[in-house]
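User: We ran a pulldown and think these components assemble together. Before we commit to crystallization trials, I'd like a predicted model of the whole complex to look at. Sequences follow.
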Amino acid sequence: MAIVLAVFAVLIFYDLKEFIRKKEPARVFVIYFLFMAASLAVSLLLAAGRRPSSPAQWIEALLKMIGVMQ
Amino acid sequence: MEKEKISGIQLFLLLLGFLFGSTVILGPAMGAKNDAWLAIILGGATGVLLMQVYVAISLLNPSKALVDILREKMGKVAGNIIAILYIWYFIHLASLVLRDFGEFICTVTFPETPMVVVIAIFAFILVYAVNSGIEVLGRLGELLVPIIPLVTLIISLSIITVRDFTAFLPVLENGMSPVLKAAFNFVTFPFGETIAFLMLFPHLNKKDKLKNVVFLSAVTSTIVVIIVFFRDIIVLGSDLMSRSTFTPHLSSLLIPGLNIEPLIDINLLIGGGIKISVCIYAAARALSQITGIDDYRKLTGAIATFCVVLSIWGFGNVLELFIWSEKVWPYYSFPFQIAIPLLLLLLSLIKKGKSPNAGTKK
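Assistant: Here's a predicted model for the assembly, 432 residues in total across the polymer chains.
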């Protein structure tokens, strides 16, 4: 858990430094944090041993629901 | 107009590297067992046609990438929604190839290393390549992709003494149905995945070469896959081949007195690396176009991080990954690889027909 937090902290710190220095528009920050927040949330759940249902399972369930797959 | 340009040979090798991708370690169309060669030929021919559809879309919309074409043909709202779905698809594809890579390396080469470490290091290097630009990727392809067929040739020649040339017989023992199913799977993996190249085609310096470049790369990759199939089946036999996880690796282990296992790793590093780089590039580029961000490089780090997490999150083990890839992937990919491109081609042809300049040369 601590390793996950540390890795994400380093990644975000490195990119954020560049974004602030280059005065990037707000939408860059929004999209960046959207991806990083999703990644961090899933990583923490995986590190805690609580794997949430994955997109692969959602896709399979969707295809079964619309009758494409048996 | 795109500033960065790649030559015909660079695009050819990038396409070839992309098409080899994970196929160099997985052995496609294995569902048809000893008739897989028929499925590869059928799927290869259909794949060539499908890739020509992508070429036609690109030629009918010169200097436009997939997102621009979607917005122009389907309207801004619908175009953006479909473009977002494509971004998801490219990210998902990159994560699947990353997982293939991780599973292979952790099963074969570094069994003691955690998979996330292997995948994260690989992704980190690829982000550096993607951030260097499409020209660097092209030169990287020029330098590295020729190694893949060379390695295939070395392995094939090394095991020429271990063989059973009747292993692929009898032909069509189980009828045509498994062959057709495997051929469809072979179209969606890897040919249909080259839809990501609609983000790269505008970078080609000479547009008149596009058709030939794409055709040649598809045909070359089909031929190499057929060679790999025959090599594997005459060495391993149909039964062992259909039960093995990484077939080409198993074949390479049979070379007497020589360990050339790492050559398979090299093949995957090159092919998989190019495939993931192209997917991350396509996703970042499409996202930057939709959101109006001037440089796609600002998003590559975040997208690659998400790909790494998605690759670990997606499947509990290698069997889940393979079953999903065989059973779900073709149907999931159908709209992205076949339905939407065909619709785009139709809309492009209609627009060309309506255009007052239709038939005149500029």
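Helices of chain A lie at 2-21, 26-47, 55-65. That may be worth checking against your pulldown data before setting up trials.

User: Thanks, that helps.
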